[in-house]
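Ticket 4471: requesting a sanity check on a complex prediction with guanosine-5'-triphosphate. Repro inputs:
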Amino acid sequence: MSKVRIYDLARELGIQAKDLYERIRKMGYDVKSHSSTLSEEEAAAVRQELAFIKNSVKTEEKKEAPAPKKVVVRRHREEPKEETEKAEEATETAEAQQKKKLKIKLVIKKPPKKEEPEKEVAETPKEEPQKATPEEFVAKETKPEEPTEEISAEKLPPEEARSQEAKKEISEERPKVRGPKVVARTVGVVKREVIEPKKAKPERPSKPERPAKPKKGRRVVTEFERRPKKEAAAPPPEPQKEPEKKKKKRKKHVVELDEFRKKAKKKAAGARPKSEREEILEELELMRELEAPTEELLAKEEELARATEKEKAAKKEEKKEPERPPTAPPKEKKIKVYESIQVGELAKAMGVKASDIIKKFMELGTMVTINQSIDPETAAIVAAEFGYEVEQAAIEEEQLLEYTPPSPDELKPRPPVVTVMGHVDHGKTTLLDAIRETDVVSREAGGITQHIGAYKVKLKNGQEITFIDTPGHEAFTHMRARGAQVTDIVILVVAADDGVMDQTKEAIDHARAAGVPIVVAINKIDKPEANPERVKSELAELGLVPEDWGGDTLYAEISAKKKIGIDDLLELVLLQAEMLELKAAPDRPARGRIVESRLDKGRGPVATVIIQEGTLKEGDPFVAGITYGRVRAMLDERGRRLKEAGPASPVEILGFHEVPQAGDDFIVMPDEQKARKVAEYRARKQREAEAAKETKMSLEKLFEKLKEGEIKELKVVLKADVQGTLEALQDSLQKLATDEVRVNIIRSGIGAITESDIMLASASDAIVIGFNVRPTSQAKRLAEQEKVEIRFYDVIYKLIEDVKKAMSGLLEPEIEERIMGVAEVRATFKVPKVGTVAGCYVKEGKLERGAKVRLLRDNVVIYTGKIASLKRFKEDVKEVVAGYECGVGLENFNDIKVGDLIEAFELVEIKREL
Ligand SMILES: Nc1nc2c(ncn2[C@@H]2O[C@H](COP(=O)(O)OP(=O)(O)OP(=O)(O)O)[C@@H](O)[C@H]2O)c(=O)[nH]1
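Returned structure tokens:
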């Protein structure tokens, strides 16, 4: 016969070997230590004993609760119902506590919560009597195949349950049949139930004690019910077979239950909370140990399988959590990209090698360099490969530029910036040369050595003037077309021997459109045929009245060639500048304008900048139009390297990424990266604007455009074939002027529409009107490029009409109210969820669904709103005309009364005639 070691058995039974050893020793077996062995038979007995103890523990635990015992007793004594119920509650609480503490489940089926006296006898699971200890069990039926129907244990009569004899029977039965103990108990219960009066309220069933459920249960119960009490109480034969020695041992062991319970509690307290699966598994193991019926074992196994699946699914879900990143990556895995990002920067942002990114690009079929800028969309694709998300950040140019105008304290006087303009060959270049020669610095330092588009001269009195040394019109108009305004003063050169010519007039137009004061230089006075007075009178006709004639235009008579009157001219310029009170803040980051630019073969993009504010220093990062850079080198007109340059200084700058355009702004930025962002932002905006292909101005959009700016002026460049027509047109257009809007003919002339006309129109947001004239091919191209509208006419009436219409658009439209129809309310109905509906008769005009209405009561307006619903014979209709009845619902208004008038009206915009 094989032997079983105690510690092996302890492991099998899930208890401490030491405890088991103690228990076995107390059972009377001759064991020395926990490594002693037992015969199979002895081991089986121990197993049974343990199972019994476990059951007993449960029972003992229940015993701890004071209520159960009393309850059962009282109830069987037919105590008042109220008390019984209270006790039941107490029992339930005690049970719950026990369950929590011990976690030992001795039975499989849970009892129904609600007690049903009749049913319980036959159907409820077996319940151990709340107060009964093993010793108290009463067994009056002994046959193993006898009733084992689950029956409420509470029904066990205490006096019988306490019978020691019954206990012996249970002990004897256990090894032989499935759940003999339960059988015994059940028998007792059944019997008791038969005896007890039916009206006795059954105890709420507590936890079923064990799974045993013999097949014939119900039928047998019935049989038992028929049996007399005496018979049922007869001692079963089998339990009697148990040896007396064993019985004694059991008694003894039951005494040890307290100790066991304490340990069990301790174990349960220290253990982690068991999962549902673990609990079921434990139950199942116990059932196996108790040799529960196969069908119940199978049921439990199924339950276990279900719990296992459930646990698996739950674990899967838990695992899914960290798998979310593809859709919602962690916050730190985001990269902000504004207009674009350089490959190198992207690599840095992701903490990867630039070469890895370049490789990735190659895989995606694109070749890039480390300094290449990529758009946010492309960056997003590549970043995703590295687990990063690109967040496209919108920047506002203003945000990055962060400009605050200087305070008056910061402002200091600055030199004027002057542009020389005039008709061809009237001596502009000669004058500029003459002025240059007046420069005291040049004389000392060897003169201006290079052309940089602008230069600064220092006069004998120490004052300075900056001249823009580029073809006047072009520089001036181009810059103005780009919204730039660098020039403070225009020197208009007019040859004394030639007088006012076309370009003289154009120059005046430009200067005026820009609001720049003009200082007239009557040149070539050295010439014998020079007639300055004639020039003055011609110019006076154009509005440039000399001071000595009572006007406010400063005139200088000079000879650029002979260098006569140059100083006087410059004095006048300074005088004019003084009147303008030109000031700038020198102590802040520089801002300026590009006046000239080119791509130098050896030095790359270079540009001449006129500093308008602040001081520019070498190394400063900057943005200029849609390009940017860092001041690599700064030169003056003499080719000297400068470390810094203040307001009104013209400087040639090296360090642009690309060639900027004349008229572009030049702004020093905190860092080059920000400068790049602004440049890229602007470039995108420019592309968008170009894509939109919107004309700068047109008659059609005049109204909209001017309404926004509240400008009540239509600027026109007017060109005609003959002087007579031109004058007639000028008169007609001028006459269109009203108090609210006027036509401003910024230029009028004879002949073809020229580039200069286009540039002026572009710079001034004007339209060009050609009467019987056409633009030159260059002008046409320029107009397309500059988005300037040119309108052609050959009938004066038509031209006037169109302009009139456009100007009408400039006026605020008048709003007029027109009555659409009137209806009389003849009945009212209250419609659930809709409100009051008026039964109306349309007296005049019509009512339209959605129309604006007024509700009049005795000619007083009660309500103004909208028709919410309009029906005829329950059908929704769009309109109802006079002579018909209809149902009208008003929007958010229900106080409609019979006799009210509903007046529908509409608001109409009336274009005003000039
Ligand atoms: N007698 C005389 N001739 C002058 C004077 N100023 C300029 N000239 C001559 O006039 C001619 C034209 O002079 P520029 O300075 O080239 O005139 P401009 O306005 O610059 O001409 P464009 O560049 O073609 O617009 C030259 O031959 C000059 O020598 C002057 O004060 N007196």
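Notes from triage: The mean pLDDT is 72. Leaving this open until the requester confirms.
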